[in-house]
Amino acid sequence: MSAPSPYIGRFAPSPTGPLHFGSLLAALASYLDARAVQGRWLVRIEDLDPPREDPTAAAQILQILDAYGLHWDGEVRYQSLRNEAYQQFLDELIQAGLAFPCQCSRKQLAGLPHRGNCHCSASTDIAWRFLCPDGRYCFDDRLQGHWCEDYAAAIGDFVLKRRDGPWSYQLAVVCDDIDQGVTHIVRGIDLIDSTARQALLYQAVGAALPGYAHIPVALESNGQKLSKQNLARALNTEDIAGTLFTALQWLRQQPPAELRGSHTELLRWAVQHWQPQALHGMQALPAPAGFQR
Description:
alpha/beta, Rossmann fold, 2 domains, three-stranded parallel β-sheet, three-stranded antiparallel β-sheet, ATP-binding, glutamate-tRNA ligase activity, aminoacyl-trna synthetase, zinc, nucleotide-binding
């Protein structure tokens, strides 16, 4: 028997609404990438922004993943239960001189990357920001090739904890990915601009960076990304095999037509024949007509 793969991947949706076709693409690609090498696949619910969340969405998301045969390993993690871990992560950055308090509002900071310190009026409501160094971060994405970003000029000192209390996406996702041992991240290219900020946080705490593969996003007919914010159509369970078949085709895989009637057989075939390089260099593709608004 071969040794288990060290690969650990994950799918980490926000419970702001039901899964749509674009969500399925990200889940399916990350699932196949892990299972193709006998790796582990985790699910994490990124529920850090209650005002934007649907209280029923997390359960619906898990039900859809299960119905589509995308079964995860271990327990589902909920970020809303991780406050102590995030505070410890922030404390480590503060002690290293890499995080500082800031009272500036978004309006006061608008138009310029925030650098170094705050000069705004004092307030009891402070955010915590990461002290961003000068320089560029470059990495080799498995699908998008060599990618660079001047994080100081483009981003500046980014938020770690917001003035109104919630933890930032960047801090929480890095803290959890490190804690869960995530080695590979497969996600949409709309998140590729987060990579530099996340890399800075990995480096700040001396953690090894994961490998990245950013898949193209699915577009509506008007060119907008298929998303919950743009009222993308929710997935249903009426034709799971047909939807998976369409998703595999969109991911530039070539599933046999005779498997269209069985989602179990489709997934088995897809794991055995997963070819992510078929998406190399692609950044956006039209969503199938049946999954647009």
